[in-house]
Amino acid sequence: MSNPLIRRGRIALAGLGLALAAALPAQAAPIPIDAFTSGGGNVSVFDAAAGTGGWVGSLEGFADPFSGGMPVSLISVVLFSIDNLSDLFVGTFEFTTTDLASTFFGTISGDADDDVLLNGGQFRIDYQVLGGTGIFSAASGFGLGLLDFRPNAMPDNYAEAGVFVLQVPLPGSLALAGLGLAALLASGARPARRRQGESIAP
Question: Quick one: which H or E segment has residue 134?
Answer without folding.
Answer: none
